[in-house]
Every structure is written in structure tokens, then in C-alpha cells.
Design brief:
By secondary structure, the chain is α/β, with parallel strands linked by helices. The chain is built from ten helices and nine strands.
Length: 257
């Protein structure tokens, strides 16, 4: 495991290890690190490997990973593609259906019966009809919330690729079209106690661990993954389609009371 948003490290590791498969997530969860898909694809292919991109946080509306050189793109359709928190599903897509790796995936899917039920498929069809509108609204809301948090005295740091001074912003601008997604994180001044207090005081944000739905969510990520080095002061937000002034007002009262 390595931080491949550092393109120098990505190139070095590919050249050194000659991987058969490279897997990246962009933007990443919960750090919102943005990885240059085109450059990592170039390094991966030069080493003879194939690149898989988890673009769940971006959705296919904001990032078309295959257009940047990815061999396979993955989405947790449970998240933004569905957007209503009522389906368990996933998506893999490729531009090269004749590739042996893809053929192996197709055979396993057929033989193992890894096919979602007809009702779940219908729910996804329902959701995809509103996907562009939902992503547009959630991205606009998340941008406004990130800017609000960045200016708040009780917030130590905000992680969101839409902020001009955020590391990875320039890469995100090149490969995300129409916004920077609904996911963001921020660190509360005062450590774990204060972060948990803020999360507990929020009224509009549901305390849950999913993302990409029409409802706004908050989670204390260290509680979920304490072994990954996530700061105890970090809260992750998934921004929904509510009125953004209501969301900022809720955050304001939670941060200042």
C-alpha cells in the first residue's frame, strides 16, 4: 500500500516492482487525496501492468477514468450512483472487453452468479435518471460547506479538492468536470472529545458511515478505522441535496455551542 497521489512515488514503485495490477482511489476516502490518473496509467502501462481506478467519490459524472487511461474503473453503486441509501451494488467497466483480465472477471461473474437482483437493478435505473442533477447539487453544496468550514475558527484543517489551496486541486481540476464531489473531511480543534461533541450536536447530518446519498451524513472516522492513522479530530461529511444555508447553520451551531 502506498500514496500514489505522489506521482514520483507511483513512478518509482511501478518501475521497481513491475506490478501486474495497480489500484488507486481518487478522490480518496477520507483524505480526499487526488491522484493523477493519466500519469499513473502511463507508469503502470510502462511496467506492463493494468490500472484499476476506484472513482466512487467522483461518480462517472465528474470523472471518466477510462478516458484518462484506466483499464478498469470501479464504482460502489451503493453510494452516489444509487444516491438513496437503499441498494447494495457495484460496477466495473472497461474500454477493453477482449483483455484477458476482463475476460477472467466476466467468467467469474458468470460462473459465481455475482449478479444483483432484478429489484435492485430497477432501483439503480430509477436513481441513474437523477444522477447528474444530484451530483451537481451535492458538489455545489460541498464546495460551499468546505469554504464555510475553512473560514471557521473552530476548524483546524479542511480536506476537499475544490479548495484552491488544497494539495491536488490542480489535478482535480484537470480530471473532474462539473464539480469536486460530495465528500469532504475536516479536523476540529480540540481533538477527539471536541470532534465527537460536534458530531453529536449536529441535527441535519445523520450519523452514518455511507456516502453519496441525498441526505447529509457525518462520521467520526477514527472510531471506524482507528488502525489507519486517521486523526481523532477528523470528521467526514457526505453532503446531500438539502439547502446549503441550513447545512452551514447546523455546522455553525455545532461548532460554536
Amino acid at each position: 500500500e502506498a500514496d500514489l497521489s505522489d506521482i514520483g512515488q507511483a513512478q518509482s514503485l511501478c518501475a521497481q516492482h513491475q506490478p501486474d495490477l495497480v489500484f488507486i482511489e481518487t478522490p480518496s476516502n477520507p483524505w480526499l487525496r487526488t491522484t493523477d490518473i493519466a500519469l499513473v496509467a502511463e507508469a503502470t502501462h510502462a511496467a506492463g501492468g493494468r490500472l484499476v481506478v476506484d472513482a466512487t467519490a467522483a461518480t462517472p459524472i465528474l470523472t471518466r477514468a477510462l478516458d484518462f487511461g484506466a483499464d478498469i474503473v470501479m464504482h460502489s453503486a451503493t453510494k452516489g450512483i444509487n444516491g438513496h441509501s437503499d441498494v447494495l451494488a457495484g460496477v466495473l467497466a472497461t474500454n477493453a472487453p477482449a483483455d484477458p483480465h476482463w475476460q477472467a472477471i466476466a467468467i467469474d461473474r458468470h460462473d459465481a452468479g455475482a449478479v444483483i437482483g432484478s429489484f435492485e437493478a430497477w432501483l439503480l435505473i430509477r436513481s441513474i435518471r437523477t444522477l447528474p442533477l444530484r451530483v451537481e447539487r451535492m458538489s455545489q453544496n460541498a464546495q460551499a460547506v468546505a469554504e464555510f468550514l475553512q473560514s471557521h475558527d473552530a476548524v483546524a484543517q479542511v480536506f476537499y479538492p475544490g479548495l484552491p489551496d488544497f494539495e491536488g486541486h490542480s489535478v482535480a481540476k484537470r480530471q473532474m468536470a462539473g464539480g469536486f464531489g460530495s465528500l469532504l473531511s475536516f479536523c476540529v480543534k480540540g481533538g477527539a472529545v471536541e470532534a465527537l461533541r460536534v458530531a453529536g450536536r449536529l441535527n441535519l447530518f445523520h450519523r452514518a458511515t455511507s456516502l453519496g446519498g441525498v441526505e447529509s451524513l457525518v462520521e467520526h472516522r477514527h472510531t471506524i478505522e482507528p488502525h489507519t492513522g486517521i486523526p481523532e479530530s477528523l470528521l467526514r461529511l457526505s453532503i446531500g441535496i438539502e439547502d446549503v444555508q441550513d447545512l452551514c447553520a447546523d455546522l455553525e451551531q455545532a461548532l460554536t455551542c
